[in-house]
Design brief:
The structure is a homodimer.
Chain A: H1 15-23, H2 28-35, H3 42-48, H4 54-66, E1 70-74, E2 82-86, H5 88-91, H6 94-104, H7 118-128, H8 131-134, E3 139-145, E4 148-155, E5 158-163, E6 171-175, H9 177-184, H10 190-195, E7 199-203, H11 206-211, H12 223-226
Helix pairs in contact in A: 6-7
Chain A binds a DNA duplex through helix 3 and helix 4.
Chain lengths: ~230, ~230
DNA sequence: CGGCATCCGGGAAGATACTG
DNA sequence: CAGTATCTTCCCGGATGCCG
């Protein structure tokens, strides 16, 4: 284990270029994305980042820790596990994640049916919500995705998402993130997903249809923009 | 010339991940940044991107053209040159460039005295302007940076930047982008820069000091955020 | 000169196996 | 569970050279 010389830099005073020096390496921003809802353990990060290898994840975490975006913390006695969490500055990267996400959904090549992590799904709710559709609504929807428990709270004209106990929510959806994405973004009816065994719904199942209207996708890039 | 198999993908339905599939390769976003103010020729791109090699620039332009972000256009007869320009969708990436730039200026490692392109400087004015400081002002500042002519128009509570003829501006600054950055972000007085021969000012030179107050940098990340 | 293709060396990423 | 070690592959960066 030798001291690394610093990663090759763009050597550019432009803030954008410096940002790429910090988080431009492959996987770096997706690691940050996965920590956006709170601390995670190494193995959870690895499981939620389809395709990353252990050594690359180790390198990214080391790098992000060195630049002050990620902090390593040992959990209190009950569990011996250690977790990685974003620093305040790390959390401030959320607008970047959102700007990228919003922009890329216009891509003709974007396939919303690919694998999806629970964190990505929750962040997409933050990004894609349409204020004029959310206005006046009040509800709480709980999610059980694998062993992750999450909540979307609709209030004050905004959809708030966070980790939390789904119990007591008006509607609780249990299933894979991809199935919930099919409901919200693919506009597959809840009944079709429950019938297929992809999703389980408890509570106010009619709420699901309303929820699915809150996150309209921007129009795909049309031929007028791409053709020469 | 064989058909390339498409670049390795994150294979993730998350919009952020797809954005990285599109513009996550090294240099890609900086190429887009350099085209943000309008079309450029290959050699201008190469000159304005310190450190990029010709073959990598070729690859990036091919890739960006294939994804529909960049268009290649042959200029009308007077010049045989061809230029690269962003598509509408490509221009829509500006919020990404801005989010990255704004976020990265908080980095302790950010050195604003590194080389800087004229385009980066103009975009930084868009990004970093403080509306409460711009309010009520009206002025036009012209820039001659190398052979590039640019204008910043202060009106309607906003700073607008674009390519344009500096003649007739209230103040015209001639010099390297780094010198103008020293004025605006380094708060080096205009007199010091003109005395050193780094900058030439014509017109309302007092305007320079006002202009330099319009773009406050956010506070650097402090020890409270980085320390464990 | 502008716009590439080609070859090469170094280094980062990916896959797998292995260890405390 | 949380990484390390090793090997292979591929990308990046630099140099050169071709061709209009």
């Amino acid at each position: 284990m030798k001291l690394e010389k610093r990663t090759r830099s763009y050597n550019d005073a432009c803030g954008t270029a410096h940002a790429l020096d910090l988080i431009g390496e492959r996987w770096a921003l997706l690691v940050i994305r996965e920590l956006m809802l709170g601390p995670k353990r190494f193995s959870d990060l690895k499981a939620d980042l389809p395709g990353i290898s252990a050594n690359v994840l180790t390198q990214r975490l080391e790098g992000l820790e060195a630049t002050g975006l990620v902090r390593r913390r040992r959990l209190p006695p009950p569990g011996v596990a250690q977790v990685y969490e974003l620093t305040d500055w790390g959390y401030e990267a959320e607008p970047i994640v959102q700007a990228l996400g919003r922009w890329a959904t216009r891509s003709p090549a974007h396939d919303p049916r690919l694998p999806l992590s629970a964190t990505s799904l929750m962040l997409s709710f933050r990004t894609m919500q349409a204020p004029e559709r959310v206005a006046g609504l009040a509800a709480t929807i709980g999610f059980r995705i694998g062993d992750q428990h999450l909540v979307a709270r609709i209030a004050d004209g905004r959809v708030h998402t966070e980790r939390g106990d789904p119990d007591g929510a008006d509607l609780i959806l249990t299933g894979a993130a991809e199935a919930i994405a099919a409901l919200v973004y693919g506009h597959v009816p809840l009944e079709a997903l429950t019938a297929a065994g992809a999703l389980t719904a408890e509570g106010d199942t009619a709420l699901a249809a309303t929820f699915a209207t809150l996150f309209p996708l921007p129009p795909k890039v049309g031929s007028e923009s791409v053709a020469q």
